[in-house]
Amino acid sequence: MYDEPPPDPFLAQLCEGYTEAEVVEIQRYMAEWDASTYISVAQSILDHANRKEFDPLKYLRKAYNFNKKRAVRIPKIG
Predict the structure, then answer these.
(1) Distance in angstroms (rounded) separating the CA atoms of residues 39 and 10
(2) What percent of the chain has pLDDT over 90?
(3) Which of 14, 28, 18 is nearest to 61 (CA)?
(4) Could you give the CA distance from residue 20 to residue 53 in angstroms, rounded to a whole number?
(5) Half-sphere exposure of 26 toward its Cβ, with a 13 Å CA cutoff?
């Protein structure tokens, strides 16, 4: 008997106000996102979108469509 993990409150917050089709799109983008130091992937997305002052779905779309081939990594200074 395995207990299901508790529901992610950040996921509920992330999906709030979106249509069912948009929630499916969000979940598809989330599959390619890493939680890194955050509690969950949804929390990471919410934090990044809020800091950049973007709608979370628009932020995910922009990140997904980012052209990585022409990107140049700029080292941190100091």
Answers:
(1) 9
(2) 60
(3) 28
(4) 23
(5) 25
At position 23, the amino acid (one-letter code) is: V
Record the tokens describing residue 57, joined without a space.
């779905």
DSSP code for 7: P
Give dist(CA 6, CA 3) in Å, integer.
9
Per-residue pLDDT at 1 exceeds 60: no
CA-CA distance, 62 to 54, in Å (whole number)? Answer: 10
Mean pLDDT of the chain: 88
Query: Which residues, 6 or more positions from 60, have their beta carbon under 8 angstroms from its beta carbon?
Result: 25, 26, 29, 30, 33, 45, 49
DSSP annotation of 2 reads: -
